[in-house]
Design a protein that fits this description.
Helix content: 25-40%
Distance between the termini: 12 Å
Largest sheet: 7 strands, mixed
Order of helices and strands: EHEHEEHEEEHH
CATH topology: Maf protein
Structural class: alpha/beta
Bound molecules: inosinic acid
Shape: globular
Number of domains: 1
């Protein structure tokens, strides 16, 4: 079986991907290859950050690798938090603080459109491939739901029944989510390759 590395330490993301990819590839996480470093994400765009992480693994560990990076882009905030989504409220702050910051910046704002965008970068041999996924929605004025993570409780996708991502089952969320869509394109690409080799 071919080995490929997913440059993540997130066990949930790894498991999700392994389920989607089936048994054609053995998908290894960073811990599986002994990579315990905190790979610096210094890019100005999510595409750049995804590429930085994949290149780091390829150059230091020699494996073909893919990596993902996601940003929440809020139109009324000029596309912020975008590439700063993970640490919008500052280093050491958590998702709750990030949400509080967004809600306070949007107080009294009626134009609340936003989107999640994910970039997945695959490095295979000396080739690079980019897969993108996005989902449009609005930022609510308060939290709804307890599932998911990050900004899920204030993001209501346009597609759907009015639920936030935090009110959906993981399966329903994955079907329409930014990451679900980008990863589905990656999996389709890899499976097509495996079936023609
Ligand atoms: P990452 O690139 O997947 O680590 O995502 C960066 C940040 O974006 C996370 O720390 C979360 O704050 C936010 N984020 C990414 N994906 C989601 C999602 O599916 N729901 C809510 N927030 C997300």
């Amino acid at each position: 079986m071919k080995k490929i590395v997913f440059a993540t330490n997130n066990a949930h993301k790894l498991q999700e991907l392994r389920q989607m990819i089936g048994d054609r590839y053995e998908v290894l996480g960073l811990a599986d290859i002994g990579c315990h470093e905190d790979i610096p994400e210094t890019g100005h765009f999510i595409e750049e950050n995804a590429q930085i992480k994949a290149r780091y693994v390829k150059e230091n560990y020699g494996y073909d690798c893919f990596s993902d990076d996601t940003g929440l882009e809020i139109d009324a905030l000029g596309g912020e938090p975008g590439v700063h989504s993970a640490r919008y409220a500052g280093p050491g702050h958590d998702s709750e603080a990030n949400i509080d910051k967004v809600l306070s910046l949007l107080q009294g704002v009626t134009e609340r459109t936003a989107r999640f965008r994910t970039a997945v970068v695959l490095l295979q041999g000396d080739e690079i491939h980019l897969f993108e996924g996005q989902v449009e929605g609005v930022i609510l004025t308060e939290r709804h739901g307890t599932g998911g993570f990050g900004y899920d409780s204030i993001f209501q996708p346009v597609e759907g029944d009015g639920s936030t991502f935090a009110q959906m089952s993981p399966q329903d969320k994955n079907r329409i989510s930014h990451r679900g869509r980008a990863v589905a394109k990656l999996v389709e690409f890899l499976n097509l390759q495996a079936s023609t080799n």
